[in-house]
Amino acid sequence: MRRLIHLTTADISLELLLGPQLSAFVAAGYEVIGVSAPGEYVPAIEARGVRHIALDNATRSMSLRSDAAALVELTKLFRELKPDIVHTHNPKPGVYGRLAARAARVPMIVNTVHGLYALPEDAFAKRAVVYSLERIAATASHAELVQNPEDIATLRRLRIPADRIHLLGNGIDLHRFDLGQHDRVRREVRDELGIGDDTLVVGAVGRLVLEKGYVELLDAWKQVRAQHPDAQLLIAGPSDPEKADAVPQAMIDASIADGVRFLGMRRDVERIYHALDLYVLASYREGFPRSAMEAAACGLPIIATDIRGCRQVVDNGVTGLLVPARTVDPLAAAINELVGNPERRRDFGAAARRRAEAEFDQRRQVDVTLATYDRLRNAGRHR
Question: Do 285 and 334 contact (CB within 8 A), yes or no?
Fold first, then answer.
């Protein structure tokens, strides 16, 4: 049986980001091993038939010492396990994971680019570091699966060979967000949260970090409430204290005092979407945002920032509205426009669901990935 390792920083990524794909790889006949820092999602990962191996030195915080230790730890692990394929994810493991796999002489090394951590408009120092590390790590891989087509041009400018770059796209489990039970689930969730049927509810889903645009969203919401005092804002997502840009607790407390509802981490996020009337994603940086695809699959109109990633999900003026990132007034104006226009919300939501059905089915990502594995294996036979 062919041994396949998927490497991420944390177990939450293996389960929530990759879980259905890992199950598909098991069904395709691979012995699948997930490698990450340990956590509460390990039992769910193992229930998929995936063996989990915990890393001692994986961390999301910036730590050169931990990253160097992770490189050494992984090199030793790969030499012991002798996998046929190592597939890396996330910015940091994507770098040290590829290098460790090459040092361990793994026959096939694949990396998924979920979204380059630097953007063309970022400061030169950040771009120099990120792009240099990406270029070095890419020399170790045999295939780069790129979720966002806008990143392909950047990788080509980094002189990564074109035959190594493949467009993967992104997708979700559309069945999880089936609209068949929408009315029932909507009533149940609103009853649980104490929200009336007639209340207009705007929602956001994501980790509580500043790069998700929470400062702008919370400031914009003050303007929305001035025009629509009965509207409700729900935010579902865990705190992320390891990140330097974690949303300050004082900001959360002040927003709660203003009537914003913070739901914390939810395992049933698909139910939360059904309780919403409008979805907002005010991020500064995205690769190919899952939450926006999930909202679209639930038939929600979407307001998002006009950045890489959001542009691939939201068709401006068709499925929702795009606004400039890091701005408050345009965001508030867009929310006010849709809050006050139920017909436009309905039209955008229906178009969003159609687009999700046509473009955001995760089965395509599984097919592309398995085809990449087969292609590399056949190429290896000829080498």
Answer: no
Q: According to CATH, where is 3.40.50.2000 located in the chain?
A: 3-170+362-382, 174-359
> Residue 383 pLDDT more than 70?
no
Distance CA 97, CA 110 (A): 10
CA 26 to chain centre: 22
pLDDT digit string, tens, across residues 33-51: 999 999 999 999 999 999 9
364/359 Cα distance (integer angstroms): 9
What crossing angle do the helices spanning 342-359 and 290-297 adopt, rounded to 10°?
A: 110
Cα angle for residues 256, 287, 47 (degrees, 5° grid): 80
Looking at residue 15, the DSSP 8-state letter turns out to be I
Reported pTM: 0.88
Q: Which fold has domain 3-170+362-382?
A: Rossmann fold (3.40.50)
C-alpha distances in Å from residue 231, one per residue of 201, 276, 339, 364: 6, 11, 8, 38
Going from the C-alpha of 257 to that of each of 217, 218, 343, the distances in angstroms are: 16, 12, 32
Q: Among the CATH numbers 3.40.50.2000, 3.40.50.300, 3.40.1110.10, 3.40.50.360, which is that of 174-359?
A: 3.40.50.2000
Q: For residue 296, count other CB atoms closer than 10 A to its CB.
A: 31
Tell me the one-letter amino acid at 2. R
User: For the purposes of burial, counting CB atoms within 10 Å of the CB of 159, is it exposed (0-12), middle (13-18) or buried (19 or more)?
Assistant: exposed
Number of C-alpha atoms within 13 angstroms, CB side, residue 86?
Answer: 31
Beta bridge partners of 53: 35
Model pLDDT for residues 46-102, shown as the tens digit of each residue:
999 999 999 998 776 666 788 899 999 999 999 999 999 999 998 889 999 999 999
At a CB cut-off of 8 Å and minimum separation 6, what does 70 contact? 55, 57, 58, 59, 92, 93, 96, 100
